[in-house]
Amino acid sequence: MIITCVEPLGISENHFKELQKNFAGQGHSFHYFMDRHEDEATLAERMKESEIVIISNIKLTSTVLAQCSKLKMLSVAFTGLDHIDLKYCDEHNIFVQNAAGYSTTAVSELAVGLMIDVLRKITELDGTIRQGGSRGTFLGRELKGKTVGIVGTGAIGIATMRLLKAFGCTLLAYSRTERDEVKNIGAEYCDLNTLMQCSDIVSLHVPMTAETHHLVGEKEMALMKPTAILINTARGNVIDINALANALNNGKLAGAGIDVYEKEPPLEANHQLLNANNCVTVPHIGYATREAFDIRADIVINHVWDFINRL
Fold it and tell me: Alpha-carbon distance 231 to 244, whole Å?
């Protein structure tokens, strides 16, 4: 089999060489690239002879996939698959497998970190002191005692709940499927409108699907308390970003912490959220920790071996 990793994935070159040797020992050819290119011409050139491709969150369209006639499997070093033309893959018998679970701890910790940042205005006040300012009359807010609504109770939503429970938060949950594990943590399931109305903090942990597109829009934000904050470490289009910017700028929401957008950063300088009031923005780093990347590397390589062994 010809196997190609089209980007570095945070893996060292020495590790790649070890993988190359291991695959060669079983009669397979393993190729890797230590740089990342997202343009379709480069992707097609790197993938066109491969039977198995390892890739993360680079967009893969049918235009690229159509140039890869030998492709049998995509081992995706990412949780979501909305960046890949799955319809094309299904029609051409290309098996696609994601790396579920590798970033559960990383994303849940960032979600809580964003909550604290927004409540205490850490990022904003870092700029204040660097410009010679002081606390003045500023008072932050504590996480303890807040009611936090978790939208989506998969692995990351549950991990976030466990952290928040340790902080002394009251937990509400909304999901299509109710889990006993969530109830055992002490969270109470409710409908989305109730969650939006009753929460001091709303944190989103749902995948990007047709059903979750703009799940939280102007109507849902209008239900929230003006003192509430919104956290999104899920997918950018789960939120109506225009509605969020308007709510922040019009004082209808107290703040937001955002890791994901309608497209991958970099963003335009005039992007709505970069100019919104009390909005902490980071460039899609929820999954990006050393620990998560090490786990991810093991997962995607194991998926490749599993696929080969099934043939």
Answer: 11
Domain with 260 in it: what CATH number? 3.40.50.720
Q: What is the pLDDT of residue 72?
A: 98
Residue 220 annotated among the catalytic residues of the structure: no
Token couple for 120: 């205490």
Q: Does residue 71 sit in the same domain as residue 207? A: no
Whether residue 306 contacts residue 299, with contact meaning beta carbons closer than 8 Å, is answered with no
For residues 116 and 261, membership in a common domain is answered with yes
Same structural domain, 155 and 236: yes
Q: Are residues 194 and 268 in the same domain?
A: yes
Tens-place pLDDT, residues 283-295: 999 999 999 999 9
β-bridge partners, 2: 29
Catalytic residue among 83, 179, 264, 271: 264
Catalytic annotation, pick one of 235, 271, 303, 310: 235
| Whether residue 284 lies in the annotated active site | yes
> What would the pLDDT profile of 196-235 be if each residue is shown by its tens digit?
999 999 999 999 999 999 999 999 999 999 999 999 999 9
- Chain centre to alpha carbon of residue 184: 26
Active site residue 211: no
Which pLDDT score, from 0 to 100, does residue 135 have? 95
Same domain, 108 and 150: yes
For the chain, the domain total comes to 2
